[in-house]
Each structure stands twice: as structure tokens, then as C-alpha cells.
Amino acid sequence: MASHFHPAATHVAAGHDDQLKSAGGGSALRHRRGRAPLICLALATLAPLLSGCVMIGDALNPAPSPTALACDGQDLTLSEDRATVTLTGRCGDIVVAADRVTLVFDEIESLTLKGELAAVTGTTITTNIAFAGGGFNEVTWTAGVAAQFSSDESGNEAHGPS
Could you report how far apart the first and last alpha carbons of the chain are, in Å? Predict the structure, then answer.
């Protein structure tokens, strides 16, 4: 099936006669009954023009594959945006220097978040947690160092023992 791209529109056909008008008023896409659904992709820079569309992932920058690591006391810096990492065992100092990281851990010595929109969940943070730039990070842990605050002016949230 041929795909069609029009820079002013993104559309997923619903299995019946559909027509989508472009910003200039002309016909941008047409789908005929009985054909497989037509899927058109648009660049993220066109997002303001796309109402009612659903984006799944980022076609230009796909998320890296999930990674599981045994720490063995090692320090680690996560620097890949959108990484999903599971750390097992006892880890040293962990630095999240990327955006949209998902991190799950057993035990870490300290945690420093430099990126944005990280989701960090684990059991024990032994000595320290620091938000050093970025914002809208969320950290949840159950043992170890007490939470210094629940949220800050940058939208960071810390949910740990009191």
C-alpha cells in the first residue's frame, strides 16, 4: 500500500471514506472504503498543526532498548536520553545526565539528577539525593536517606522515608 505524506496534516483512516483538508483548503488525503488504514507521519515541528492526532514514539529518535546492569559497587552516569535502565545489587554514585530516563534500582549510594523528566524508583538511597539542574524529575525510594522535600520550584518530586 502506498503511503502519502502532506506537511499540513497527519491522519489515520478509519476504514471508510475520509477526506482531510490541508491548511490551504485543498484536499490533502483521501481514503477509500475497503483499503487498509492509511497512516501518515509528520515531523514533530508540525505538532501545532496536528489536532486530534496520536503520536507513538519518536520515529526520528527511537528509545534505546531497556538495559539491566549489575552494579557491584560501581559509580555510573546515564547520559542517553530516553534510556530505560534497571540496576541490580549495590551501586555507587549514580548520575542521571539525560532527559526522560526511566531508572529502577535496588540500592545506590547517592543519586544526582541533571536532566529532565526522569522517573526513578528503587529501594535504598544511602547518603544523598540531589537535583542539579533540569526539572520535572520524580524519585521514589523506600529506605535510607530521608526525603528533604516533596516537590521544588522546578517541578522535581522526591518521595522517600521521612
Answer: 58
* Predicted model pTM: 0.62
**Contacts of 74-78 spanning 24+ positions with Cβ under 8 A:** 78/103
Residues in the chain with pLDDT values less than 70: 1-63
Grid cell listed for 156 = 522535581
The helix or strand, by DSSP H or E, that contains position 59, with its residue range, turns out to be none
Instruction: Burial-class residue 80 by CB neighbours within 10 Å (0-12, 13-18, 19+).
Output: middle
Based on DSSP, count helices (H) and strands (E) in the chain, helices before strands: 0, 9
Question: Within its chain, how far is the Cα of 118 from the centroid?
Answer: 8
Q: Give strand ranges (E) for the chain.
A: 18-21, 27-31, 67-70, 76-78, 84-96, 102-113, 119-131, 138-144, 157-159
DSSP readout, 80-103?
Answer: STT-EEEEEEEEEEEEE-SSS-EE
- Which of 113, 103, 107 has the alpha carbon at shortest distance from 91? 107
